[in-house]
Structures are given as C-alpha cells and as structure tokens.
Model the fold of this input.
Amino acid sequence: MPPGSPLGPSARRNVGQSNVDLLTVELGDRAYPIVIGAEVLDDLGRRMAGHLRTGSAAVITNPTVGGLYLARVESALRTADFDVTTVEIPDGEEHKSLESLARIYDRLLAARLERSSPIVALGGGVIGDLAGFAAATLLRGVPFVQVPTTLLAQVDSSVGGKTGVNHPAGKNLIGAFYQPRLVLIDIATLKTLPRRQLLAGLAEVIKYGAILDADLFALLERELAHVLALDDTLVRHLVRRCCELKAMVVQRDEFEADYRSILNFGHTLGHAIEGLTAYQRYLHGEAVAIGMAVAARVSCLKGHCNRETAERITRLLERAGLPTGIPRECPEPQLAAAIAGDKKVASGKVKFVCIEEVGRTRFEYLGAPELAALAVQ
Ligand code: NAD
Ligand code: GLY
Done:
C-alpha cells in the first residue's frame, strides 16, 4: 500500500494482499462464497466448477451487459466444461416481469437444463432478481450464481437471496428468498457503468455507512473524490465492506423477521417517491438518497439524533451528486397515501428506520399521515 493511500489503517488490513478478496455468507449448509476482485470474470468457470457440477448451464443477461461481457463469460464457462445456453432479456426494469420469466422457462426447458444445471445472472439488480427467481422455481430449484455488474448489485442486491419480479400491481410483489451458490464480483465492470448508475449505487454504499459503520461513512466523507474516480483499491474495499455488512445482516435474519428491515433505511420514503413520480424521474438509488436525507431529518424531529448527524448524512449525499429534497410531485397527502400503500405496512404502521448517530439506528413505528407530515417539514 503506497503512502498517501486513500484507505485508513483498518481498511489496509483487508485489501491488497492477493488479487481477490474472499468472504463467506455463513448460512449452514447453504453457505456460499463471495469473490471480489478486478478482472476476475475470466475465472468464473473455474470458480463455478469448484462448487457445482459441470455440464449444461445457462446465462441470463441483457443486450447492454451482454454486449460488453457475455463473450468472456461464455468462454470462461466453456473452458471449464460447461455447455452454455444464453437468454437475453431486453434492458430495463419493465422487463423484470412474468413475461420475461416465461421466456426464460421456455428457453431453458427447450435446452433441457437439469436440476444440477446452474443459472448465472450477468447484469445489474434487474437481471439478478429475475434470474434468481427463475433459478428458485425452474425444476423446483437449480443452482444460482450471481455475477453483478452494477455498483448497486455488487454492494447489495447480489447478496442475501431476495429474488423476484414486478407485477402490474407493484414492484417486487412476486418472489422468493433463494440464496446463490456463488457471487463473483468483478469491480472492473464498473468502469463501463454510466455515471448516473454509479452514483445511484453509491447511495446504497452511503446507506451501509449511515446505518452500520461509522468508519465506512467517514471514509466516504474523506475520500469521495477517489471513489468517484473509481480508485481500484478503494472501490474493492467499499464493495467488500458492504458485502460483509450485508452478510452479517442476512446471517442474523435471513427472512426479514425483524433485524433485516434495517436495510430499509431511506427505502420507505424512497419507494413512495418512486411511485409518485411514476418510476420515471429517479433511479432507485436516487429516490433512496432523498429517503435517507428525509429519514435523517425525521429522526432528528423525533428526538433520536442531533441536527449535526442529520446534516452530515445530507451533506455527503449532496456531495455525491445525489438528490436530497422531496420533489413538488409529492405533496403531503399524496405522500401519506403512497406510504400507506407500501407492501411492508402492517396494522397501519410503518416500521421506520431512524438514525441515532452515524452507524447506529432504531426502529420507530409511525402511521403514514404522521410520517408524511414529518417528512415535508
Ligand atoms: P439495472 O439492473 O437496471 O442496471 C442499471 C443499468 O445499467 C441497466 O441499463 C444495465 O443494462 C446497465 N448496466 C449494468 N451493468 C453495466 C455495466 N457494467 N456497464 C454498463 N452498463 C451496465 O439496475 P440496478 O440498479 O443494478 O438494479 C435495480 C434493481 O435491483 C431493481 O429491480 C431493484 O428492485 C433490485 N434490487 C434488488 C435487491 C435485492 O436484495 N434483491 C436490492 C436492491 C435492489
Ligand atoms: N436490499 C434489502 C434486502 O436485501 O433486504
């Protein structure tokens, strides 16, 4: 590690020792590895062969990601004796749908995939959620491998086993918890990610710092410019740290009985804002950024944190180029109605994640009208 490295001493312990970082999500007989490194895509076949039976395999991707990385992935799999069928789904959240799922089933059944044949998701959270649900349900479950290529997917959605598709009645309404057998994260793929998508993913990294890790948050404050320049060592550290934190949460509460809801920080308001702006104006991470800034302010109004804590969170989001204010399209009554319609509302109350200080949270049960009134203050 050269002098003047962006990482502090605690980060230094964990990185730069080899060309990959290896974590394990400890879930008993469903434990699985997360492999993190730069330019590790070509190693996918060898890594899969170490965990899974070779033979037929499927890759699910979209034309954007496929155009960039599919040839390398197919070649890595064929070199390791996998016989590959690839299914391309059009790019976009609207294709995380039952129609796309039916297309995947049709193609993979025609290709005679077997119970031991893995499905590989090559793409962002849309492809990961869709391919994961296909893997959970095809032949009552085939092995699933995540190869996430967006920052959001690398730090959050590829780990933890939430899979599913959207329904005309709402987002992610059909799905299953289904853990992957391997997550392979090539941080070099972030170099082709559009900047707006990168920043939306960074909102989730900021979330992990805000709710669970004050050191991570302080690192982001100190080194934001290097993060945005995609400094390899720093990005690898951030991805690794977020995966460690996500693994810790999932190990403690895999099926979101209680503790896992901590990951919803910023999401209750974020989902409401996404819905009220017809999923057109904001990327998911951008809406979550607004939700986090407002949640921090609400925490302060409820007396759970001081004003400096709330301002620190808002300041970092703003410096990262993320939005933090509730848009005009979301006046209080509509906001209250949207919050009340959230699928996670129970007995009329939202389990709202409040900040106590950077790195520490508590749950507060709020009615939708009260939360909307606090949010617009
Ligand atoms: P996405 O999958 O739509 O990807 C964003 C865009 O980036 C797409 O156009 C994609 O084609 C493109 N892209 C992906 N990788 C690229 C690369 N390396 N280079 C260039 N372009 C690339 O969006 P996302 O933000 O990754 O995921 C959002 C989805 O994730 C939502 O459906 C959300 O519900 C889901 N999600 C799931 C979980 C979970 O725990 N399962 C958690 C958070 C979000
Ligand atoms: N992304 C939230 C969760 O996995 O629970």
